[in-house]
Design a protein that fits this description.
The complex is a heterodimer of chains A (612) and B (416).
Chain A: H1 3-38, H2 40-51, E1 52-57, E2 64-65, E3 71-83, H3 93-100, H4 104-117, E4 123-129, H5 131-140, E5 147-156, H6 164-167, E6 170-172, H7 175-180, E7 189-191, H8 194-198, H9 200-204, E8 208-214, E9 220-223, E10 238-241, H10 245-254, E11 260-265, E12 272-278, H11 292-300, H12 309-312, H13 322-331, E13 341-343, E14 346-349, E15 351-354, E16 360-362, H14 364-369, H15 373-385, H16 389-397, H17 420-427, H18 434-437, H19 451-462, E17 466-468, E18 473-477, E19 483-485, E20 490-492, H20 498-513, E21 529-535, E22 543-550, E23 557-563, H21 569-586, H22 592-599
Parallel strand pairs in A: 2-10
Antiparallel strand pairs in A: 1-8, 2-3, 3-4, 3-5, 6-7, 8-9, 10-18, 11-12, 11-23, 13-16, 14-15, 17-20, 18-19, 21-22, 22-23
Helix pairs in contact in A: 3-4, 10-21, 13-15, 13-20, 21-22
Chain B: H1 9-31, H2 40-43, H3 45-63, H4 68-73, H5 75-92, E1 94-96, E2 99-105, E3 108-111, H6 112-129, H7 139-158, H8 162-178, H9 183-201, H10 203-221, H11 224-248, H12 251-258, H13 270-282, H14 295-298, H15 310-342, H16 347-371, H17 389-407, H18 409-415
Antiparallel strand pairs in B: 1-2, 2-3
Helix pairs in contact in B: 1-3, 1-15, 3-17, 5-6, 5-7, 6-7, 6-16, 6-17, 7-8, 8-9, 8-16, 9-10, 9-11, 10-11, 13-15, 15-16, 16-17
The chains are: A alpha+beta (612), B mainly alpha (416).
Chain lengths: 612, 416
């Protein structure tokens, strides 16, 4: 090979290599021109999305107020520490344990638990940590990859009012629930009982969104453009209730260690002033991080504290049924206020039906005051014999006994006011007769009601024959501060005449002044009218009832109290009802002896007769 | 011994320009507004790189005082020594992110595979130019050259450093081509890579590539058996690639290979880097988002942006103007080095400069090709810009050798 040829060859090869370099360079230049100039519009939004993360901001749940504007239910911030196990570095456990002030083993255990749940999803590591620990974590987030923090809220019950059966508790929505409602997301807590359940849609509010600048590790670097794209959450609507906080807390105190239900109602509006079911339970232990042992305890308790006796109990009303019997008897034309019935100590119809009232002649007023059974056995005998059972049943139901009253609480239960259909179902057609119906006249046997139904019924007597719609929420205050009022029904029961109702009121006033209510229910400055009752209980001790309203002239409050397994209503339920009336109308409780009596009340072990 | 006038200052200016832009990008990626989330040792990368640059400048100056004959004379010894170091590294090396390719010497970690590049280039160049009559046309000579390259490649693969190994293999055809391997055979050598690349894009493109290459080889060589080989080899590659993609590889492996062409196949896996790299560069626009203002860079949507994805930082923060400046600087460097080689009288120096130029060029094409998603992502650094002391030092030494050979081109040629 000559030098000349070699030089030619080198130049040819160099040209090829030069070509390769130039082609490579042009390809890359064209490519970056394509990406940065032509497709610029495509990639700019992509890079925006990348660095921004949309976060959901939970709205504050609405508050619940009593009728005087005191807060009954509010929110309390709780601080949680979260973990995304995939990003967490196990070497950081000692540091984490140190900040959390918890043993390393405990932290390790919790982390393992989170890892088992999901390696990539963020889950709560510790909830309800103190603010100091929360701040400590916040300051050290940069050296704790995979660890996060969040502020959540839980329900808090300031003051003395617990009202567990009214307010209800929250629980995480089930899969069915969040699939059925697009406003509910996985992990959201929704009301599962009480007002929290009934008014959940109002209380919940609307979620907001927030744009946060993040890096590829998902670490938050601050808000985007001072939050111009953010949508604030809409706070849930507040509920204004008809409850009287002071009265409710007294009622709860009075019903402690007892079993039964109490309903106090405003007879002019139907607003519930107080509602207690005993035994009660502690809502605050179910708020936020649920006390699981407590939850199991109240679920397995034989006294069923979760059961709302005030609206769901189904017990015979006993003698508290008599005032309504009187009004129905007059409407059916079977008696007038002047009708006198002689009581020889029993009523005889096939067999003798006992009567503990003194023998003598009784008109309606006296029969109510001294709770004579004979009078009402006689009346029921007439009703049953003349085939008026169904009419009787309809008229009794007009007082709110029997069907549900549609109070704004869940799990309300019907009572039983028998009619021929019911009797046929129960006994079979043509197999029942007058004898099976006699005890209905004195509120025993198949007839059964809840304290709420008795409260609604006695309110109708108190207000002169108007049917009220019992309700707890009187107004819903939305985020704009506008009130939305609930228009509660207030309707005359057409067939009730005022002279008839006056006779019944007089009889009930007599119960408190001279009858069985005189020991505990008579108040010095307030005219109270009431009726005691004792329901026979085939399974144990009798149940005591007391229904009352006051003042007689212009009733402001009507009360029904059921004390299960506590014997005579006059000594078990009446003192409680009278204390409630005293507190509501005077603002205080002056009869310390009655209060002490109720607080230390132990049912006496005795069986009672039919009368009270 | 050397005269400052003989030094190619344009190369030094380009070199300084590239490492300055690189330093700025490393600074932005590791010292930016939200760098507190990075571990300390990464935040220090900027300063470590600066120290390495100072060391490299000293080495560059020192290299100019070395006699050019030493490179040729010591080539085999150097090669054997480096291979020995690589074998030692295999057993005693430090493992960093899955690769056992680092040898700890005192406080420094040295990547022996980088230094071996120089040794391999010297050894191959020395072998191919030590006698006048030798040429890669001779099969034995060609195979020996292949062996010189293959030995470090095997060791690199054992160290789990496939990225660097690919660069060795990419330089080999250029070395053989320059040393006299016929053009047609050279083209045949690289044809499987080209056919494979186009087949991954689309098998029809692969088929067209086979046809074009076969015709080109026939026109270059005019030998039927060579064209036939090209055709058969091409068809085998097209079918093999297609069968591998469709049948042999699992869907996620296939997605990894194809993701450069279609990143949405696996947007959170292999496609993630492709998509994020394209997004970073694309969203830079004409002027870029500004120094330390790139959201993709600052918010760390790309892993290791100070090393393999450094070009994305430049693209995002300095835009088309900045990234095209980088491309032009590299282009000028390559053409200047190629000019140096062609104007050198000594075949050893020619081959060494050509080899080094194409070593840089392959790094450049693969790195920026990966970042702009025209090539599958292969993790190799961008010369003079990516963070990495061993690589920067090695690249500077190679550049210094070119400068040395160039400035001594008159005296050197006399001795040959």
């Amino acid at each position: 090979m000559t030098n000349h040829r070699q030089a030619d060859k080198i130049h040819a090869s160099a040209k090829v290599l030069q070509g390769i370099i130039v082609i490579g360079l042009i390809v890359l230049l064209v490519r970056i021109f394509q990406l940065q100039i032509i497709e610029y519009e495509t990639y700019t939004p992509l890079s925006m999305q990348n660095s921004l993360r949309m976060e959901v901001v939970n709205p504050a749940r609405g508050l619940i107020y009593d009728k005087n504007g005191s807060i009954l239910v509010e929110n309390q911030p709780i601080y949680s520490i979260t973990i995304t196990p995939a990003r967490f570095n196990a070497e950081k456990i000692p540091l984490l344990a140190d900040i959390l002030q918890i043993e390393e083993e405990e932290v390790q255990k919790k982390i393992t638990e989170a890892q088992q749940y999901s390696w990539h999803r963020t889950s709560r590591l510790f909830t309800e940590v103190s603010f100091e620990i929360f701040s400590g974590i916040q300051e050290n987030l940069w050296q704790l990859p995979g660890i996060g923090h969040q502020i959540e809220s839980k329900r808090q019950y300031p003051g003395d009012v617990r009202a567990a059966h009214i307010m209800g508790y929250l629980r995480e929505a089930t899969r069915e629930e969040y699939l059925a409602n697009e406003r509910i997301r996985l992990g959201d807590k929704i009301g599962k009982s009480g007002l929290e359940m009934v008014y959940d849609d109002y209380l919940r509010g609307e979620i907001g969104t927030e744009y946060i600048r993040v890096n590829a590790y998902g670490q938050e670097l601050g808000s985007y453009e001072e939050g111009i794209l953010d949508i604030s959450p809409t706070k849930g609507a507040d509920l204004v209730t008809t409850l009287d906080g002071n009265l409710q807390s007294l009622a709860e105190k009075l019903m402690e260690n007892k079993q039964g239900g109490l309903v106090a109602i405003d007879p002019q509006t139907g607003g519930i002033l107080s509602l207690v079911s005993a035994p009660q339970y502690d809502l605050s232990k179910l708020a936020g991080r649920m006390d699981f042992d407590y939850w199991q305890d109240i679920n397995s308790d034989p006294l069923t504290p979760l059961y709302n006796r005030a609206i769901s109990a189904r017990q015979p009303p006993g003698s508290t049924f008599k005032p309504f019997m009187g009004l129905v008897g007059m409407e059916l034309g079977l008696l007038s206020p002047q009708t006198e019935i002689y009581n020889p100590g029993y009523y005889s119809r096939g067999r003798r039906y006992g009567d503990l009232a003194d023998p003598g002649s009784y008109n309606l007023e006296k029969a109510l005051t001294f709770s004579s059974n004979t009078y009402f056995f006689w009346l029921m005998d007439r009703i049953a014999s003349r085939g008026m059972l169904n009419t009787w049943s309809d008229l009794i139901q007009d007082f709110g006994m029997g069907p549900v009253n549609n109070i704004d609480l869940p799990f309300e239960r019907t009572g039983i006011i028998p009619d021929s259909t019911y009797m046929n179902q129960r006994f079979g057609e043509r197999t029942w007769g007058v004898g099976d119906l006699m005890s209905l006249g004195v509120g025993q046997g198949m007839v059964s009601v809840s304290p709420l139904q008795m409260a609604v019924a006695v309110a109708s007597i108190a207000n002169g024959g108007y049917r009220v719609q019992p309700h707890i929420v009187s107004a819903i205050k939305d985020q704009k501060g506008e009130f939305q009022y609930t228009n509660a029904l207030f309707e005359k029961i057409e067939w009730i005449e005022s002279n008839q109702i006056e006779a019944v009121k007089k009889g009930m006033r007599g119960v408190v002044t001279t009858g069985s209510g005189r020991y505990y229910a008579d108040l010095p400055d307030i005219e109270v009218a009431g009726k005691t009752g004792t329901a026979q209980n085939p399974f144990g001790k009798d149940h005591g009832w007391f229904i009352a309203f006051a003042p007689v002239d212009n009733p402001q409050i009507a009360v029904a109290v059921l004390m299960e397994n506590s014997g005579y209503g006059s000594i078990s339920a009446a003192p409680i009802a009278s204390l409630i009336i005293e507190k509501y109308l005077t603002g205080e409780v002056n009869r310390q002896h009655v209060l002490d009596y109720v607080l230390s009340f132990k049912p006496r072990n005795e069986t009672t007769g039919v009368t009270d | 011994m050397i005269n400052a006038k003989d030094i190619s200052w344009s190369v030094i200016i380009i070199w300084a320009g590239l490492f300055t832009i690189g330093l700025a990008a490393i600074y932005s990626a590791t010292q930016g507004p939200v760098s507190q989330f990075l571990p300390d040792y990464i935040q220090n990368n900027f300063y470590k790189q600066a120290v390495w640059i100072v060391i490299s400048i000293l080495v560059l100056v020192a290299t100019q005082f070395v006699s050019p004959r030493t490179f040729q004379g010591g080539a085999y010894l150097f090669y054997v020594f480096c291979i020995f170091l690589m074998v030692i590294t295999l057993f005693l090396g430090v493992e960093i992110s899955g690769s056992r390719s680092w040898l700890r010497i005192g406080p420094m970690n040295l990547q022996v595979g980088e230094i071996t590049k120089i040794a391999t280039i010297f050894a191959a160049a020395n072998y191919l130019t030590s006698r006048r009559d030798i040429s890669a046309e001779n099969l034995k000579t060609a195979l020996t050259t292949v062996a010189i390259f293959l030995l470090p490649v095997i060791l690199l693969l054992l160290q789990n450093e496939a990225g660097i190994a690919i660069v060795y293999l990419a330089v080999l055809p250029v070395v053989l081509f320059w040393s006299g391997l016929p053009h047609g055979i050279s083209l045949l050598m690289i044809s499987p890579v080209l056919v494979g690349y186009f087949t991954i894009l689309n098998w029809m493109w692969g088929a067209i590539a086979v046809a074009v290459l076969t015709v080109a080889i026939f026109l270059l060589q005019r030998r039927a058996w060579l064209s036939l080989t090209s055709l058969i080899l091409g068809i085998i590659v097209v079918i093999g690639t297609e069968v591998a993609l469709q049948q042999v590889l699992l869907p996620h492996q296939r997605a990894r290979i194809e993701s450069f062409a279609n990143p949405t196949l696996e947007p959170l896996g292999a496609g993630w880097n492709v998509l994020q790299a394209k997004t970073a560069i694309g969203s830079g626009g004409l002027y870029g988002k500004g120094f330390m203002e790139g959201t993709q860079t600052q918010l760390r949507f790309l892993p290791e942006q100070w090393t393999d994805f450094i070009f994305c930082v430049v693209g995002e923060e300095f835009g088309f103007i900045g990234s095209s400046l980088v491309l032009v600087l590299f282009g000028l460097l390559f053409l200047r080095l190629l000019y140096m080689a062609v104007n050198h009288k000594h075949p050893f120096a020619q081959l060494v400069i050509i080899s080094i130029t194409f070593l840089f060029f392959m790094h450049f094409i693969i790195n920026i090709g990966s970042a702009t998603a025209i090539l599958p992502i292969i993790g190799i650094p961008l010369p003079f810009m990516s963070y990495g002391g061993s690589a920067f030092l090695t690249n500077t030494i190679m550049l210094a050798v070119c400068l040395n050979l160039d400035s001594n081109k008159r005296s050197f040629s006399i001795y040959s």
